[in-house]
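Objective 1.3, modelling of assemblies. Example input:
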Amino acid sequence: MSLTARVAPPRYLLGQPLHAEWTKFRTVPGPSWLLAGVVTLTVAVGVAAASAARCQSARCGLDPATVSFTGINPGQAVAAVAGVLAIGNEYSTGMIKLSLTATPVRLTWFCAKATVLTALSLTASALAVAGAALAGRLILPGHGFTPAHGYTSLTSATDVRAAIGAVLYLTLIPLLSLGLAAAVRDSAAAIGLVLGVLYLFPLAAAVVSNSTLARHLDQIGPLPAGLDAQATIGIKSVPLTPWQGLGVVSLWTAGALLLGALVLKCRDA
Amino acid sequence: MTTGTVTPHRSPVTPERESFWHLVHAEWTKFRTVRGWVIAAGVTIVAITAFVFVASGASHSCVGSGGPSACPVQPTGPGGVPVVDAFYFAHQPVTGNGTITVQMTSLTGQVEVGPAGNGAPRMGPGLQPWSKAGIIIKENTSQGSAYAAMMATGSNGVRMQWDYVNDAPGLTGRVSASAPRWLRLVRDGGTITGYDSADGTHWTLVGSATLPGLTSTVQAGLFAAGSYYDSRFCTEDSNFCTRATGVFRHIGLSWPATGWTGTNVGGAGPNASSGVPAPGALRQSADAVTVAGFGDITPAAGNAYGGNGQSLQRALAGTFFGLIPLIVVAAMFMTAEYRRGLIRVSLTAAPRRGRLLAAKAVVIGAVGFVAGLVAATLALAIGTPMLLQAGPLAWLVSLFTEARMVAGTGALLAVAAMLALAIGTIVRRSAPAVAIAILVIVVPYLLAFGPLTGSQPQGSRPGGGGGWPLQITPAAALSVQQAVPQFHQLLATYPLHGGYYPLAPWAGLAVGCAWAAAALALAFFLLRRRDA
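Predicted structure (tokens):
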């Protein structure tokens, strides 16, 4: 009887850590509440915005998709909290030591965490955006967004593209937060940093007097770039094309994840 | 051997431990000794100050193309306030004290109702709420000179206005042949008093204006000004598309009459869209004088008349950047206690929980206040010359206003910090507390630009842009930094990006304070009730 047969094969493949991370997410109440919060807030604010919007003339300049997806603006803060806490809770409870003992290859663990988070936030985003789009579809035609004012169907290819852009954006935000939280390792500082990165670019663009600078701020900030991906009218006048906008958000996310992975790999947990 | 009850030893409670300031000192020590928190408070100051260099660039197209000199020169009134002073004036020179009395029997108007094509724009009957005609005593016919006037308006009744920014209400209702309005101005040295009457015998005091340094010889007479446009009527992108026409009878001058001279104050252009009003008209018959004119006599505020300056508040635009690290620190000031279990020690040391919360609020509020005070002082000191270099200010900023902006920024940061502390106490966890605090304090300003608030129509009432996000959320406290005033007698759009808020400075700060107080009360209630 050989001893080696009893030793389990090394659990370095992604399957086991994935399952472990999924169990973590599943068994604490926080993440599910937060993701439910993303959906509720996005849809509720979207309904409020659609109810408040009025289009009285053919050139009212309101983008129905932007109106419907107004809720993403506050909703993404909840999504960011979910992303930050996914890793911040590991550090604040000391769970990180256990996790890294169980999965010594840190990047595998990080990938597993990111994968599970992506799957969950993609689900929540799809639900939130679908709800907001449906609300807009039901409310907006009654508020002047009619063919007479140049809004043909609200379900054209452009609108579908805007919705997909919104879903992808709302999925990328928790990943961005995950990366920054892994780099900062403190929940409070990380959420401050994430929300600063998200909200300060458009705020700065709104208050600077130099219009060229404002346009550049709108191009490099993840939030305004992500909004460009949701535009359905006046696409020529927004600073970035939809896919460029999503590209900027993806770059921010990739950068944050890379930074988080580097810090995780190089520093003592 | 004595067998008695042994009283357990209790260390004596020293008076210092009972004192609230002892607790404040303890909390201050906690704050002071966490390096990250002190750094964050420093970042708050640096962020607000440093953003001045980003925010205070060139602002307007007229600056970009040919330097500040390319901007049209805004006339200034007494005290240096930017004004619009363009109207039709039927006047005669008068010297010394005296009285002018008229009966007004009609105020009608013409507005542009159709596109101009190649000729003159089509006109139709219509009047703006602040279209005005009446009697005026004005130092001279140059723009921006001191004046006092009694007038009938489109839908605001009889008013007395003087020196552009002052307005006092008189008789209500529209003037007509069946309801004539008698107006009277009495000059006595530098004081001009206005009266109105419905019948010419019973006079009511409307207002009294002191015009310092008024010359002995002034111009007295009749005027008409169409006032700022309302988009319902105006199709041209023009400021002066309304013509007001007043009919005056029973004109009584106590000075020797020399005959009316008609003058287009501020000049007259061929069409209204050139920024100069079209010429007015004076018609005299046996028993009446009719005066018609475009233009307006008003402060240049809001976006009316293309106010071409920027708000000094731009120098404080970095406040958003300062708020975020401060909010993080303020929330952690409480949540860190929970995370480390330090809260048990703290509550053992200060069993009266309300006092612990109060001490924390005092410390973090003071940190916010001082940080805001220092940062705003630095930002204004650096930003004011930079802004002036980029172009003129939209409105004169008095020392008092600057002091309010500086103290207000301190108060704003203190309120934000205390609110974040209260949210931290209620939520007890860092990340949600910080997120909630940022959502309610910083994000409403962003929402104020969005579709949630609807679009503000042209010619809307004063009340600033932004709508409810800056009226009912804690972000309303940002209004305390306003550096530009709004006038009820000037219907214009007061846009948020021009620095106009929906609430008055102190009212906005009061909303923020109310939120902080309510949140602290809830935090106090929960802290007492819950197990630590």
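Residues 98 and 222 of chain A are 34 Å apart (CA to CA).
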